[in-house]
Design goal:
Distance between the termini: 47 Å
Number of helices: 4
Order of helices and strands: EEEEEHEHHEEEEHEE
Strand order of the largest sheet: 3-2-6-9-10-5-4
CATH class: Mainly Beta
Bound molecules: flavin mononucleotide
């Protein structure tokens, strides 16, 4: 079946994260954000695509900071309340009934009840006609203890990452299934050595 090219994300499951920011005047803002990706490994960079008219974008530009909150399926009911337009003066934590998780290295608070938090600072904003790509550096990365297994992999049963695909109705929410299959990075290299292995040692 052929789909229209703009429907690419509908068949490409995306994480439903929440970006929390604070305005210049100290107003807390939250918005769901799915167009996010890490930039290669083992870098500490994250890329978030933003439409031009977003309080989030304004706040990130004004303060140079944001928190990328990784949510589980239990926060699915917070997606629409935080996605709906609300004026920049509205406190969206209050509006959506979200609890704050204090941040450590940025002013913007995180969201309690998520399974991981990335406290980020803006490195660069790449502006195009219709969107801005926000390149952030992860300054602090925290994951809930119960969401990590002893081998360091995400415990999908505990985290239940909130994801979405598209559907004729719009957004279709889902989560992930574990295949219990792993491979070391070194398997990609002909000599069986991962040149970046040292970076992953504690
Ligand atoms: C699941 C979901 C994912 C979204 N992802 C993005 C995104 O990646 N980039 C974006 O600009 N808007 C995205 N939006 C739209 C914003 O969340 C929405 O416009 C929100 O009101 C923006 O809030 P703000 O003006 O407080 O920043 C998404 C909405 C939903 C429901």
């Amino acid at each position: 079946m052929l789909l229209k090219p703009f429907m690419r994300e509908g068949i490409m499951p995306l994480p439903v994260t929440f970006i929390s920011t604070i305005s210049r005047d100290g107003v807390r803002n939250v918005a769901p954000w799915s167009c996010v990706m890490p930039v290669l490994r083992p870098l500490d960079l994250i890329l978030a695509a933003s439409a031009l008219k977003r309080d989030t974008l304004q706040n990130v530009r004004d303060t140079g900071q944001f928190v990328l909150n990784l949510a589980g399926t239990d926060l699915a009911d917070k997606v629409i309340p935080t996605a709906r337009y609300s004026p920049p003066v509205a406190d969206e934590f209050e509006l959506a009934g979200l609890e704050e998780k204090p941040s450590h290295v940025v002013r913007a608070p995180g969201i309690a009840g998520c399974y991981a938090w990335m406290e980020c600072k803006l490195v660069k904003a790449y502006e195009e006609d219709r969107f801005v790509l926000l390149l952030g550096r992860v300054l602090r990365l925290e994951v809930r203890d119960d969401a990590l297994r002893s081998d360091g992999s995400l415990d999908l049963a505990a985290a239940r990452p909130l994801m979405m695909t598209g559907s004729r109705q719009g957004m279709h929410f889902c989560t992930l299934e574990d295949l219990d299959a792993s491979e070391p990075f070194s398997a990609m290299f002909p000599d069986g050595r991962d040149p970046l292995a040292g970076r992953y040692q504690e």
